[in-house]
Amino acid sequence: MFKTLIKKLRIFGNNIQILVYAYRQKNCPLIAKLVIGFTLVYFFSPIDLIPDVIPVVGMLDDLVIVPLLVWIALKLLPEDILVIARQQAKNHPIIPTKKSVFLSILMAIFWGLVCVWVIKLIWK
Fold first, then answer.
1. Which domain covers residue 8, as residue numbers?
2. Engineered SS bond to 21: which of 8, 39, 85, 114, CB 3.0-4.6 Å?
3. pTM value?
4. Same-domain pairing of 68 and 35
């Protein structure tokens, strides 16, 4: 079961990379670019449609909405763009750099401070 989960997570990560490369294609249709853009922003954004603090339902959006958006975005891509994006993702995988990890940590700290500030405003 654990190996199956790891395999699915790798496929999901690969699909995210495919979407990034497809988005960069000049001949990618506008509707596909819009859906890909929304999908990537929603995936990387710390703000969810349903907050994670709501038990079960809050995490359900991460398990249902994001994969659904990825699936829709992949279905909207023409076959030629999908083939090129898959090849690029295979040959040039996107590997986090020290700079991107540092910026991610900074973003997490920023949003944490914003949450603390909002909580303090509410409780006063």
1. 2-93
2. 85
3. 0.67
4. yes
